[in-house]
Amino acid sequence: MKNTALKKVPTIASFAWLGYWLIGVLMFSNTQQPQAAAWAATINVGMQAIIVYSNTLVLIPSFLEKRRYILYGLLCFGMLVLLSKLQLTLVPADVKMILKRNIQYPRAFQFARIYLLFMVVLIISTAWKFAVDRFNALQTQNEMARKQLESELQFLKNQINPHFLFNTLNNIYTLAYLKEDNAAPMIMKLSELLRYMLYQCRAQWVPLPDEVVFLRNILEMQKLKSEVYGRQTTFEVTGVRSGQLIAPLLLLTFLENSFKHSDLDMNPHGHISVSLQVDDRNRLSFLCINTKNAAISAESELGGIGLANVKKRLELTYPGRHTLEVTDNTRTFEIRLTVSL
Fold it and tell me: CA-to-CA distance for 277 and 212, rounded, in angstroms?
């Protein structure tokens, strides 16, 4: 990754180098005067900084990451030898007091010690570079996955709205054609529902109480279609309270299809029963049961844009946190959904 913290040298890195320099000053002060100790620490830390940034900004990207291993190794070796000799020239050799005698280590020993220190710095900077690059790569990967997920969810929600609008407009057209008085109230209900879908459902999560109100409005709008729907439709809600969140429009498809594929217009004993419960563990249980019209296969219809859409949204929004059961009985069609909110 090009835009890493290595190129901009963030403030925290500047303070880290400053702290490292102060430690160096204290260490050199044991054998040298304060001015000489500050000079020695400056040279020592400066050389190490050259190694770190030369390695992470030039050598690794240009050679090691391009698998030019031999050239990378030779350049690192040459850089360490050059900087070790330069430090040995700029900083006087250490003098130790042993048995009241000034002992100066051999120049070769001084060089080897500096070279080994610089080698450790090179190895640490290489490991740090790869760790930072790995972290940035994971961040980029997660961001791309998040954007892809948002795009998929938006696409699925965009599929829901036209489908819902198409079915509702068909109902309103029928009422208007028959000159029913309920056509105007249904248009008002539709306006409220669309306002919710267009403005409140843009977020990834919506308050569960608002979603329940939305489902109730759909039921009320359907009841305007016929008195039969008012008598043979039930909707029970328990355990819903403020603070609970849910993916918007997640239950709309189930409710829509229960009306579309029920036999309420022909069966005096038909029914649509919907219940929504939230328990103490914040687990939502949704159950939708409707008697079905034998002439229409609810399962095949749901297998199109309906059930496939909901299944995909559940996988993206509640991975490993939901169960969905679809049961096509002889006379009824059941949807059971459990979601951990």
Answer: 11
* pLDDT tens-digit readout, 132-187: 888 888 877 777 666 656 655 555 555 555 666 666 777 777 777 666 666 777 77
d(CA 70, CA 134): 23
pLDDT value at 337 more than 90: yes
List the Cα angle 33/37/41 in 5-degree steps: 180
Is the separation of the CB atoms in 80 and 117 below 8 Å? no
**The domain boundary residue, chosen from 90, 117, 141:** 141
Distance CA 335, CA 254 (A): 7
**Helix runs in the chain, H state only:** 5-8, 11-28, 34-54, 69-90, 107-177, 183-199, 208-223, 227-231, 252-260, 298-301, 307-317
Residues 105 and 33 occupy one common structural domain? yes
Last residue of a domain, one of 113, 141, 169: 141
Instruction: Examine the pLDDT at 3 and tell me if it is beyond 50.
Output: no
Residues pairing with 325 in the sheet: 336
Range of the domain at 257: 180-340
Token pair listed for 166: 């198409």
- d(CA 283, CA 211) in angstroms, rounded, equals 16
**DSSP type of residue 292:** B
- Cα 175–179–184 angle (5° rounding)? 65
The answer to whether the CB of 239 falls within 8 A of the CB of 279 is yes
Q: Please indicate, yes or no, whether residues 324 and 192 belong to a single structural domain of this protein.
A: yes
- Half-sphere CA count of 118, side-chain side, radius 13 A: 31
Question: If we measure between CA atoms, which residue out of 196, 255, 250 comes closest to residue 220?
Answer: 255
- Rounded distance between C-alpha atoms, residue 267 and residue 260, angstroms: 14
